[in-house]
Amino acid sequence: MEQFYQVLTWVGVFLYWLLIAAVTMRVVFKRRVVGVSLAWLMIIYIIPIGGVFAYILFGELNLGKKRAERAKDMFQPYENWFQGLTDCPGHQPHLMSEHARPINDLCENRLGIPALSGNTLSLQDSPQTILRAMVDDIHEAQSAIHMEFYIWHPGGLADEVATALIMAAKRGVTVRILLDAAGSMRFFRSHWPKLMRHSGIHITEALAVSPMRMFLRRLDLRQHRKIVVIDSNIAYTGSMNMVDPAYFKTDAGVGQWIDVMVRVTGPTVQVLNAIQAWDWEVETGERHLPMVPDCPFPSAVNATDMIQVIPSGPGMPDEIIHQTLLLSIYQARESVVITTPYFIPSENLLHAMKGAAQRGVLVDIVIPDKNDSLMVEWASRSFFSELLTAGVRIHRFQGGLLHTKSVVIDGNHCLIGTVNLDMRSLWLNFEVTLAVDNAEFTQQLSWLQQQYIADSHQVDGSTWHDRSITNKLFEQFFYMFSPLL
Fold first, then answer.
1. Annotated catalytic residue: which of 244, 305, 364, 410?
2. Does the annotation mark 405 as catalytic?
3. What is the Cα–Cα distance from 155 to 162, expressed in whole angstroms?
4. Is there a catalytic annotation at residue 226?
């Protein structure tokens, strides 16, 4: 009997070794960032069985068979739709600035989405302004309202938006709402979905979380876009979820969340509408492709209101927003100002920011002083010494959890949207960013960034160098996991 158990033990060890070897080969031969592969190998070897189990659940980009098949069938009609934008009079690449033209070339060649002029942009920089403006526009809606958010959290002004949508649906407006199942879990457990559906609103959970599906789709793949389109005439996008900060995570100890949204009119509205339609069809199988925008030839006043819409995530070209960020930073000649709540840059982004500072460009990074993710907080700190040594200025915002995701290059070109400077946003989630080639709007965003900096304290290099050994150990530990955060 003892011999039997000994044989059984050796068989178990051999099977475990075989499993580890198979997963290791899978990690090694899967083309990805080297740091990501090394982080996964460390987890697999350090955590017996659990590491392998974690890799199966979270290690590869798996949208799920049904969604992947839908997306494959959607490529051609959506490609044709985006191709039609090049015939729009608003497509005026020769009018772009020297910063915007390379980004347009990149996105047009890889995404098939051109930049369009003839837009108007309004920067909404406070929750009250944003939500009140949405409520007013919803009350004026005549035909259709399309929304998608990562988080919808009941309470405060968010409830006023919900009430306005119910009133709109009751007067005959078609309302479709797509919400991430994990981010909006509290909303789906509230009374609001039942009230909305009863009034005729179509609500869909994106990427539903279920133990039955854990081996069929990557569970931490999330729908992180924020898009509102009203009557195909008005659109909103930016960093803000459908929450009233006075009612959201008030016990987290980080203060109220600070966000911005961009209100857009013009031909770019339909581009955002098409992206929302893509997300809706991937989830439901229902096609609601909008009309190609009938944009008039831009006047001299708004000919340079160029907006490049850049979506990313499964079904989109790999690393497209990451490439855009790198291209923007490498083009900088005078200044780069970045605001982000979660700062875990890729190795390439780290080198780009250091290289910009070392060639004399003023590089400022503004992040929250307190973060709602302990792991992200420690991992972010692990990059400070390297950046400070290169001459990058790091500012820690004191006025709450700064959630604005923005980049301003040389004060005349900007990126603004839903993308955090971390691996999850740049490689995994569904995201959207606007590359804006408009001096007036960029100046407004730059002024807002300077207000953030004025409400921050700058990290001092010498003081930072003298921090405790314990802090350095924590930073280095979480740095090892940074490619997966």
1. 410
2. yes
3. 10
4. yes
Catalytic-labelled residue, pool 99, 224, 322, 395: 224
231 is annotated as an active-site residue: yes
pLDDT tens-place string over residues 169-192: 999 999 999 999 888 999 999 999
Distance CA(430)–CA(225), nearest Å, equals 6
Q: Which of 146, 153, 405, 413 is catalytic?
A: 405
CA dist., res. 248 & res. 254, Å (int): 11
Residue by residue, DSSP assigns 80-142 as HHHHGGGGSTT--GGGS-TTHHHHHHHHHHHT----B-S-EEEEE-SHHHHHHHHHHHHHH--
Strand pairing of 335-339 and 257-258? unpaired
What Rg value do the Cα atoms of the chain yield, rounded?
23
Q: Is 410 a catalytic residue?
A: yes
Rounded Cα distance, 125 and 403, in Å: 11
413 beta partners: 409
Whether residue 305 lies in the annotated active site: no
Comparing 254 with 392, the larger pLDDT belongs to 392
pTM of this structure: 0.88
Task: Specify whether the CB–CB gap between 458 and 464 falls below 8 A.
Answer: no
The string of pLDDT tens digits covering residues 122-139 is: 999 988 999 999 999 999
Instruction: Please compute the mean of the pLDDT values over residues 375-381 and round it to a whole number.
Output: 84
As a whole number of angstroms, the distance between CA 316 and CA 428 comes to 11
Instruction: Please answer whether residues 303 and 95 qualify as being in contact, where contact means their C-beta atoms are separated by less than 8 angstroms.
Output: yes
**pLDDT exceeds 80 at position 257:** yes
Active site residue 159: no
* Nearest-angstrom CA–CA distance, 115 and 171: 35
